[in-house]
Specification:
The complex is a heterodimer of chains A (234) and B (123). Chain A has 234 residues and is of the alpha+beta class. Chain A contains 8 helices and 7 strands, in the order ββαβββββααααααα. In chain A, strand 6 (97-99) and strand 7 (102-103) form a beta hairpin. In chain A, helix 2 (106-114) packs parallel to helix 5 and helix 5 packs antiparallel against helix 6 (186-193). In chain B, helix 1 crosses helix 3 (56-84). The chains are: A alpha+beta (234), B mainly alpha (123).
């Protein structure tokens, strides 16, 4: 069924001084092959030293976010048939490189945890569950689905320019709790991002929307946060 | 704290007034364009323009134009500095220069607006 060339960025910190590109030929063996299938074929049959993250292979875990032909996507849900060849695969931009396609996500995850990604409930707690109306529940659609793959934040020029900027992913996750009717932590969360490295670094460049493999809209969430902060202040 | 005084504001004010000044500028610029190019018919005669600029109402109009254009431009430059300059001393220096330049240009522009007199009637 033909072959596709993969041009992959390789870097071994123990051997290489700087990253370089290496070409591989991937055999198309069945219709509907994904980029991750190609990477697996390379690793299992051609070059066992190729390093990349993967887990669920169905777009839920967010492990295999990669820069594929210049756009951040998940390798496991990106069809090879839809891509121009050669398929150029690089690690997520702006993140510290560990090896080959693996980047250091510690800073990204620290920023997520900084936003208190848990429900801060009203006190006293109800005896049974906390109820939420269907209307209030619908406000969380398009927010709760974030899989923390880092595609959006690493596609954001503001995130590249300011190492301390919280980034679209953390901000979307803050907004997810600010709009939750069961949560009472909005004020303390908004305090966290009302500074030079918070929401005001977003200049609505919209790369994050294009990058998100789940079709979410971090820019809109950040817009909501900006409005909430401005109306609280003026 | 002195080093950080310029970043004491959070950015909410900058963000909101960049938008407000943008809308005001669009209105003023539209009006300026209509008057200069459509109503005046593109005739830039010295007497016509000087007579208009000598009118106190037009002085106020151009004073607003100057203020909002300078605010919008210099606040835009401040946001760019906030984006890319992370060294506190360098940022403080650049932001100070940014506002200093804004004040100098504002005073200079104000002086020009105020100094306009109606031209002497030709004999």
């Amino acid at each position: 069924m033909g072959k596709v060339t993969f041009t992959i960025l390789r870097f071994d910190p123990e051997k290489d001084k700087k990253p370089h590109y290496q070409d591989y030929e991937v055999e198309i063996r069945r219709p509907g092959m994904m980029v991750l299938d190609g990477l697996n074929q390379i690793r299992w049959e051609q070059d066992g030293t190729l390093a990349y993250r993967r887990s669920c292979r169905e777009g839920v875990c967010g492990s295999d976010a990669l820069n594929i032909n210049g756009v951040n996507r998940l390798g496991c849900i990106t069809h090879l048939e839809d891509l121009k060849t050669p398929v150029v695969i690089q690690p997520l931009p702006s993140m510290p490189l560990i090896k080959d396609l693996i980047v250091d996500l510690n800073d990204f995850q620290d920023k997520f945890f900084l936003c208190k990604p848990f429900l801060i409930p009203k006190k006293p707690l109800p005896d049974l569950e906390q109820l939420q109306s269907p209307e209030d529940r619908r406000k969380l659609d398009g927010l709760y689905e974030c899989i923390l793959c880092a595609s959006c934040s690493s596609s954001c020029p503001s995130y590249w320019a300011d190492p301390e900027y919280l980034g679209p992913s953390a901000l979307l996750n803050i907004w997810r709790f600010v709009v939750d009717s069961r949560d009472v932590g909005a004020d303390e969360r908004l305090q966290l991002l009302n500074d030079r490295h918070g929401v005001w670094r977003c200049h609505t460049i919209l790369n994050c929307i294009e990058a998100c493999p789940k079709g979410l809209n971090p820019t809109q969430a950040i817009g909501g946060l900006k409005k909430a902060l401005v109306s609280a202040k003026f | 704290m002195a080093l950080n005084f310029v970043s004491g504001r959070t950015g909410a004010f900058d963000w909101l007034f960049q938008r407000i000044s943008g809308v005001v500028l669009a209105l003023i610029l539209g009006l300026h364009f209509i008057i200069l190019h459509l109503i005046s018919g593109g005739e830039y005669e010295y007497e016509v323009i000087m007579t208009r600029l000598a009118n106190p109402s037009w002085k106020v109009f151009y004073f607003c134009f100057l203020f909002f254009a300078l605010y919008h431009a210099m606040n835009g430059a401040k946001i760019l500095i906030d984006d890319y300059i992370h060294h506190p001393r360098l940022r403080t220096l650049l932001l100070s220069l940014d506002w200093l330049l804004a004040i100098v240009l504002f005073l200079y522009g104000t002086l020009i607006i105020l100094m306009h007199q109606a031209p002497a009637v030709k004999g």
